[in-house]
Design goal:
By secondary structure, this protein is of the alpha+beta class. It has three domains: about 90 residues, Uridine Diphospho-n-acetylenolpyruvylglucosamine Reductase, domain 2, CATH 3.30.43; about 110 residues, Uridine Diphospho-n-acetylenolpyruvylglucosamine Reductase, domain 3 (2-Layer Sandwich); about 80 residues, Alpha-Beta Complex (Uridine Diphospho-n-acetylenolpyruvylglucosamine Reductase, domain 1). The protein has eight helices and 20 strands. The protein starts with 5 loop residues before the first helix and ends with a strand.
Length: about 325
Amino acid sequence: MKLITKEFNQKTGIQNYLDLIDPESDMTNSTKIISEIFRYDVPLQKYTSFKTGGAAEIFVEPLGALELKRVLQFCKAEQKKIFIFGKGTNLLVGDNGVKGVVIHLGGINFKNLERDGRYVLAGGGVNLPKLIRTVALSGFGGLEALAGIPGTVGGAVMMNAGGKYGDISDTIRSLTTMAFDGTITKYMRGDVEFEYRRCNLSEQIVIEVEFQLNESKIEIVLEKMDKIYNEKQESQPLGTFNAGSIFKNAAEYKAAELIDKANLKGLKVGGAVVSEKHANFIVNTGNATSTDILDLIKIIKETIKKKYDVSLEEEIHIW
């Protein structure tokens, strides 16, 4: 990791976005770039943790902010629907695929990770487990509560990822987004409304996040991480093809408890099964289709509604 300069922090907090100050950023150049980086009919199975789903009509992986801005300009001009994802760990893609432009934040400039004392700046495409471990090995705490959660920084922020030990929003100092019209905005933590598994940043893409951490001893942070990870390993089907919790919890209930109480653990549709280890997980046993998973979700929702008059709400994103 390279060190952020104090001048950098004080001025903008935005990494490497000088390329956006480009007098030639017009649709002519946008179209030229688009023709070079667009791919068509790209299967999305390998990009999602469920390992199911059809193809993207148009697939693009911008290297950085300038390419992302031009892709968004193209989408606006052509009235193309926009789909954004990072690691695809909270996503179910339908078997018929996605009509529109699927933007994967896997470009190298979205994976920048820098530290200046207890402040860490991470690109939206940074792998979340990597960030957590890097911070821990630097002797800083605050992110260990997220141990065992997959995905990217951007996706984790958009859904306010977390668990009983804390959420990612607990350590955010500021974040930078690009709206679907290409506008870049920097928000301080207090400017954004974070709630359980959501925030109010609609039609925006998280391109960078600044975290404020606590100085600690490496062994203490690693011990906490191991404890949390081992706890999840005991109760969740880690290492399988799944997308994490399927349904959101509520103040009145926990989805897993309702599903377990309804004796739905082990229920199968095709190659999809309700996990015996954690009732709020659906696992692809190896040959499931997205339709299998969707049918299983439907059965669970209908059963819980009938038995307990509770309408479960999906936590995963469905395309």
